[in-house]
Amino acid sequence: MDAIWNFSNPYEWMERTARSKMPPLIVCCAISGGIQGKEANPNLPETAEEQAQAAYEAYNAGASIVHVHVRNTERIYDSSDKVEEYRAVNALIRQRCPDLTINNTTGGSYGMTDAQRLACLEGGPEVATLNLGPEMYKFTAKAREAPLQHPRPALDLNGLHPATYTQIAHFAREMKKRGIKPEMELYNPGMYWVIQDLQREGLIDAPYLVQFVLGTMTGSYPTPWNVLSLIQELPPNTLFEIAGVGPYQLAMNTMAIIMGGHVRVGLEDNIYYKKGQLFKSNAEAVERIVRVARDLNREIATPAQAWAMLGIKSS
What's the total number of domains in the chain? Predict the structure, then answer.
């Protein structure tokens, strides 16, 4: 399967577009995230059973990867740092859809230590996120009121998600030790320096997987111009996907489809189908991007095709 090519070559792009020769589209669904919950959208899954069901519905709608923030059973609004909770959710997902690629977060929630973030790797995912640099944040998390489980007041969050070369290398080394493919989260073009460092240290293996995360407070602006610029810098033997945050999700996903990349959808990144209308489910987000992709002559990757493109062994 010819999934990796020179995405910045206009002649190859024209040839592939004219002959409908783009690779099948990998759809990753980020089902919940680790920050907001049912206080933001009552359809956002929180419990282990809800997350497994959301993954199953997204899988049936066309997702071949599911991105999971397992929730803390004692504070359901927060991400878990417990190995057994990750194993429990991953096991429930595998029971329903055994060939779905599970992508666990090492981002966790704000304020976690490195050790807490790495607990997810013992849950047995095929893929895990690897943030390529620090990220500042400043926002208010909506109050969580009864009768929702584990109510809490509104939270004013203002801080830094830390990351150094040493920390990032440690995360990559722990993934490589377990045979887990890093999904490298790239928020701005300066983070390409970090990818080069990981390559020099032998901590990542081709085919590489880079996700452009666009629309966060210290990430690149979610614009077509920035997408085109980021694609220019991709290292050889790399697949890319795009996550657009909030109202930019659909536009950024569509750019990825057109340019031969792959997409991330889901209620972690965006809770609205359109202005004033909440998503009814993660599956609804997958169904919409599947329709868009097919109208743009991109077939949807099966789980087996996603494994092949990512270099993941089916076992």
Answer: 1
Sign of CA dihedral 110, 114, 119, 125: positive
> Is residue 59 a part of any domain in this protein?
yes
**Digit-coded pLDDT (tens) for 190-210:** 999 999 999 999 999 999 999
pTM to 2 decimal places: 0.97
The owner of tokens 């950024």 is 252
Measured in residues, the chain has a length of: 315
pLDDT of residue 315: 53
What CATH number is given to the structural domain containing 112?
3.20.20.70
Asked, for residue 5, whether it belongs to a domain, the answer is: no
In a domain, residue 3? The reply is no
**Rounded-to-integer distance, Cα 285 and Cα 292, Å:** 11
Locate tokens 């031969």: which residue?
260
